[in-house]
Amino acid sequence: MSAGTVAIAVADDIGSCMWDMYEIAIPCSVFGLPQPDLADPWYDLRLCSVRTETAPSAQGFSLRTRYGIEDLVTADTVIVAAVPDSVVHGEPMSPELIEALRAAADAGARMVSLCCGAFALAEAGLLDGRRATAHWMHTAALAERYPAVRVDDSVLYVDECDVLTSAGMSAALDLCLHIVRCDLGAHVANQLARRMVVPAHRAGGQAQFIDLSVPVTDDDNLGPVLQWAVENLDQPLTVDDLARRARMSIRTFHRRLRAVTGTTPLKWLLGRRIAHAQALLETTSLPIEKISERSGLGTATNLRRHFAAQVGVSPTDYRRAFETSALPAATQAS
C-alpha cells in the first residue's frame, strides 16, 4: 500500500477566520508528520497556494507556502481544507484555484473537501450528481447554490471513492483518519488515532450536533405557547393543548407553526423532547428511564427508538460523547 502525495489547497485570503487555520492544521497533523514505525514512506504533504503568501488575517498573521497552485495538479490526493467565509455567503472563488481543482481531478487525483471546502469542489463541478456533505450550518446554502449536488447534512463524512467530503470542524479528522484507513489499513489508522487521543471511529453523524432550540418568532401568540411547551415537556402534551393555549383552531395553529418552523406540530414537539433529552444526557447522570419521563417520551424504549432515529446514535453513545467528568450532586438524584 502506498501513501502518495497529498496537496492542501490554500485560498489566498485564508486565515481571515481562526477556524480556517484549525481546518488546515488537521490534515497537516495527519498527513504531514511522518510515522515511520507505522508506515514508511508516509505521505508527502504539500501546501499549495495561488500566491506564495496569503493576505494577513485579522489576527495579524499570514500563511507562507512553499508550493504553488501548479503543484496541486500533480498530487495523488487534493484536499480543500477551508474556503473564506465570504465564499459561503456568495462571493466568487479564485478562478485559478477552480481550474487547478478541475485539472487535478482530470489527472486522476482523489479529491477531498473538509467542511466548507465542499463549495470549491462544487464550483469546479466535481460534486455534480454525487452525494456530499459540509458543516450542517451551511448545507442548506450548498444545496441551494448547487442543486446538482445531493447534499446530506446528517453524516460526518461521505466517501464517493474518488471524491470525499466531510462535515464541519472536527469531522475533518474523522475523514482524514478514514483516508489513512483506506490507504494504509485499519491498524495504522487505529494507532494514529490513539496517538492523537481521538476515537478511531465516532458513532453517528452530525445530526447529534445540530441546534434543536426553540425558534425565534415574532408571532405574539405562537412564541409564548412554544416556550410554555418547552417548560412542560414532562407532561402528556397534545396538539389540541397547544392550539387551545394559543387560542387558535388546530388548522390555524398547524399552518402558523409550519410557517415558523418548517415542520408539523407533532414533529416539532418530538424535536423539543429529543432536545431536552440531549440536554439531560449532557448535564446530568440521571438514568435513561428518568430522562425519558422528564422529556415526555414515556419509556426508555420509546426514548431510545426516537433518539436513534433523530440524532443518529443511541442515548448511551450520545452521553459518552458529551459527558462531563464531574456532575453536580443534585443532578445525580432521581
UniProtKB/TrEMBL annotation:
<dbReference type="InterPro" id="IPR009057">
    <property type="entry name" value="Homeodomain-like_sf"/>
</dbReference>
<dbReference type="InterPro" id="IPR018062">
    <property type="entry name" value="HTH_AraC-typ_CS"/>
</dbReference>
<dbReference type="Pfam" id="PF01965">
    <property type="entry name" value="DJ-1_PfpI"/>
</dbReference>
<dbReference type="InterPro" id="IPR018060">
    <property type="entry name" value="HTH_AraC"/>
</dbReference>
<feature type="domain" description="HTH araC/xylS-type">
    <location>
        <begin position="223"/>
        <end position="321"/>
    </location>
</feature>
<keyword id="KW-0804">Transcription</keyword>
<keyword id="KW-0238">DNA-binding</keyword>
<protein>
    <submittedName>
        <fullName>GlxA family transcriptional regulator</fullName>
    </submittedName>
</protein>
<keyword id="KW-0805">Transcription regulation</keyword>
<dbReference type="InterPro" id="IPR029062">
    <property type="entry name" value="Class_I_gatase-like"/>
</dbReference>
<dbReference type="InterPro" id="IPR002818">
    <property type="entry name" value="DJ-1/PfpI"/>
</dbReference>
<dbReference type="InterPro" id="IPR052158">
    <property type="entry name" value="INH-QAR"/>
</dbReference>
<dbReference type="Pfam" id="PF12833">
    <property type="entry name" value="HTH_18"/>
</dbReference>
